[in-house]
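yo, Cysteine desulfurase is done. seq:
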Amino acid sequence: MTPLDLDANATEPLRPEARDALLRALATGGNPSSVHGGGRAARRILEEARRAVAGRFGGEVVFTSGGTEANALALHALSPGRRVLLGATEHAAVRAAAPQGASALPVHGDGTLDLAALEAALRGGPPALVCAMAANNETGVLHPLAEVAALCRSHGALLHVDAVQAARLSAELPGNTLALSGHKLGGPPGAGALVLRGGLALTPLIPGGGQEQGRRGGTEALPAIAGLAAALLAPYDAPRLASLRDAVEAALGEGVVIAGKDAPRLPNTVLAVLPGVAAETVVIALDLAGVRVSAGAACSSGKVARSHVLEAMGFGEDAGSGIRLSLPWNAPDDAPERFRRAWEGVRARLSSRRPALAT
Ligand SMILES: Cc1ncc(COP(=O)(O)O)c(C=O)c1O
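structure:
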């Protein structure tokens, strides 16, 4: 039996619409910068993809190699001369790109940004750049972005939104800039985008041959970009995923804490904290039982990593005990039942070591 994929937040399976668009762009070939007919055909595909992304979010679109580069470009271009304030649960792509001296803003126990702390930080001082992710990749928790944006506006701050995990939600996403990633939408890896609103000037992170109106050097990865746009436009059945997600949560049973359960969340994501259990043990045991999930935090060299997201949410000792279950766009109807069967076996083995997990 094929393994059950519950790791969509790592990468979504390729959508057929994206595969078709990718193959069409590959077949067309050509470099969008060439002036001959082949180049013009490639440019048409590129500009069509740009219009698709701009049509969804407004503003101008700079294509990048992925979400990490889109976030790095935003920080590179917008942070000079500004204080950088970032949520404590931001992705490593944002944290690592932030300049030294950037301040981390606390989140509440449910993972949402502490607006009072944001307002206090914004008051006084030089103009700020605030980085707030739309949806957290570990918990799926959605920040109150409308309120964050209003506070930024009233204090003259710029807002950068890492929308990598939330770009398919219908809710309007505020922000002067938005970072997107193709493979998190069901497009191929290799393309992302930075959306710029309000005519912001942008110094390139990667200088080069003037591509992307001088904002990002390097020949555009046309097949991946065409796939990104097609994946963004493909239908996403959030209510169906939310009901599968609820059933997966119910299958987890007693003794498991769902991080951010009462906050608004992505429809497909559960971060299950198993107090006293190392997440990697569970990830490996579930893999052997045919279910693919992730530890909330990545591990390195076999060491149990602690999740900075769970730490910021106050999980303390249990910050290394989160497993993330994230349903892909094409999750089968029997995903909760298949998960339940695998989980029962894993849980039985764990509970011999940790009785609180016994049902
Ligand atoms: C919230 C968030 N931001 C940024 C990234 C980086 O995106 P990419 O893999 O396209 O570089 C990820 C990937 O895990 C993510 O989840």
